[in-house]
Amino acid sequence: MPIGVPKVCFRTPGDGNASWIDIYNRLYRERLLFLGQEVDSSISNQLIGIMLYLSIESYNKDLCLFINSPGGWVIPGLAIFDTMQYIEPDVQTVCMGLAASMGSFLLAAGKITKRLAFPHARVMIHQPAASFYEAQTGEFIREAEELLKLRETITRVYVQRTGKPLWVVSEDMERDVFMSAVEAQAHGIIDIVAIE
Q1: DSSP string over 20-51
Q2: Average pLDDT of each block of 10 consecutive residues along the chain (196 residues)?
Q3: Any bridge partners for residue 177, and if so which?
Q4: Which of 77, 85, 96, 195 has its CA 20 to 30 A from that of 137?
Q5: pLDDT at site 2
Q6: What is the C-alpha to C-alpha distance for residues 137 and 118, in angstroms, rounded to an integer?
Q7: Where along the chain is the active site annotated (predicted)?
Q8: Is 160 helix (H, G, I), strand (E, B) or coil?
Q9: CB 111 within 8 A of CB 92
Q10: In 3-state terms, what secondary structure has residue 121?
Q11: Is residue 72 packed enough to be buried (19+ CB in 10 Å), middle (13-18) or exposed (0-12)?
């Protein structure tokens, strides 16, 4: 029998009675966000909404985004990235488990000096992919052109966020490059490896 999302007791400041809320809502109140699935429009919109709300609530308190994601869609991931750069609070990023593909892109998107990975975390970067293998020729060409633009955008961001030269990032994105936390730090995707 599935246990579902755990609930915890929480008392709203100024309220005399405590109520039971799901654990993620409780953690959001502490400015702790989670990306624990593939990036898609639904999770993207949820995270963007939470980040905007929390930045309005307090613009000078950091947010912390915990990432354990196999990647996902490029456009919803870029929407999260843009929001992270737009809001006033710094967004710390923490890799626990796996940050692959769009997950690693969002890991690198955190405030430089505040990007962290746990010691046994894995990070993977590669070029964006598309599903145009079933498309008609005209659509195939248009989608391929769009894919090249997205790849250029993602490569530019990795260059800016990691401090690595364009040729290094471009070469690494040609294939799946898996890294340990220490290797991700050397690559400039994270700044700190948490101590065991």
Answers
A1: EEEHHHHHHHTTEEEE-S-B-HHHHHHHHHHH
A2: 71 77 85 96 97 95 98 95 97 98 97 98 86 59 84 94 94 93 97 90
A3: 125
A4: 77
A5: 55
A6: 45
A7: 101, 126
A8: helix
A9: yes
A10: coil
A11: buried
Residue 62 C-beta-side C-alpha neighbours within 13 Å: 14
Question: Any catalytic annotation for residue 41?
Answer: no
> Which structure tokens are listed for 179?
């890294």
Of the candidates 55, 101, 104, 187, the residue annotated as catalytic is 101
Collapsed DSSP state (helix, strand, coil) of residue 194: coil
Q: Is 187 a catalytic residue?
A: no
Q: CA–CA separation, 142 vs 132, rounded Å?
A: 10
Residues in the chain: 196
Task: Indicate the pTM of the whole model.
Answer: 0.89
Rounded to 5 degrees, what are φ and ψ at 182? -65, -40
Both tokens of 62, joined, read 């950091």
Beta-bridge mates of residue 63 = 91
Q: Which residues pair with 91 in a beta bridge?
A: 63
